[in-house]
Amino acid sequence: MVVDRVASEQLAYPGDGLHYRDGQPFTGVMEFRLPDGRLEAEEEYQHGLLSGRRREWHFSGGLQSEAECAWGGYHGRVRTWYEDGRLEADELYEYGIRTRGTRWDEQGRVTEVFELSEADPDYRTLELSRSAFGVGEENEPSTNPGNSS
Q: What is the pLDDT of residue 37?
């Protein structure tokens, strides 16, 4: 299957939550390019909504972030890397709500371990989303801040 890849300038976003190409909700990959033509970021879309993988690169060319998306927002594993390739964050999201994850400083020391608690106001929103749409993917975030390779 051939995936339609287009420059961000080729899509319209009228503010209704969807991206369009030629008046139709876009399915394919939207690319963001630097003035010199290098790929800065790419996002996968289904029927106009961000759905699939979203990736960004550091100016040097190394991967800066990679996220699993659905329904227009984060849904699944989201990871970010420092310029030197060391992992900065490894987190899980459901319906755009961060449910758990770990963050590291540039020396590889854990700076935050997060797990959404029932006391958090976002927990109720997550429960409502799960009830309406189903339980999200269960991908385990990393506990090792190693390189991106």
A: 93
